[in-house]
Amino acid sequence: MTGVVTLLVVAVAVVAALYGVAMLVRLGDALADVPPFLSGHAPREHAVSRFHVRWYTITMVFLAFDMEMVFMYPWALVVAEIGTAAVVEMFLFLAVLMAGVWYAWREGVFRWV
């Protein structure tokens, strides 16, 4: 039990020593005191401001096609072994994705103004 306590005390002492050395060799002010660099101008909005909702829908479309590629790479390796069934399955998968793109287009997801 004393070995565990000794190890814990040593670990806390090392962390405290490293923190103290970092505070001593700091070059500038604390980050909370320094304004963000923006070509000398004050920022117009908060750094954690919300994005327009259209970016979330574009992100979902991107993720759908990103997942398409995740499925197509292994498919390309086994298509020669499986044959026609693999080709039919991939075209069905692509048809479902194209139906999603058609729906998004119809709903105006890709309109920017």
UniProtKB/TrEMBL annotation:
Location(s) in or outside the cell: Cell membrane; Membrane
GO terms under cellular component: NADH dehydrogenase complex; plasma membrane
Keyword Zinc-finger carried by entry: no
TM regions (residue ranges): 56-78, 85-105
GO terms for MF: NADH dehydrogenase (ubiquinone) activity; quinone binding
Keywords, ordered alphabetically: Membrane, NAD, Quinone, Transmembrane, Transmembrane helix, Transport
Pfam families: Oxidored_q4
Keyword Transmembrane tagged: yes
Main location: membrane
InterPro entries reported in the protein's UniProt record: NADH_UbQ/plastoQ_OxRdtase_su3, NDAH_ubi_oxred_su3_sf
Topology relative to the membrane: Multi-pass membrane protein
EC number: 7.1.1.-
Substrates-to-products reaction catalysed: a quinone + NADH + 5 H(+)(in) = a quinol + NAD(+) + 4 H(+)(out)
Coiled-coil stretches noted in the UniProt entry, renumbered to this chain: none
Family: Belongs to the complex I subunit 3 family.
Function per UniProt: NDH-1 shuttles electrons from NADH, via FMN and iron-sulfur (Fe-S) centers, to quinones in the respiratory chain.
Protein name: NADH-quinone oxidoreductase subunit
Species whose genome carries this gene: Saccharothrix variisporea
Lineage: Bacteria, Bacillati, Actinomycetota, Actinomycetes, Pseudonocardiales
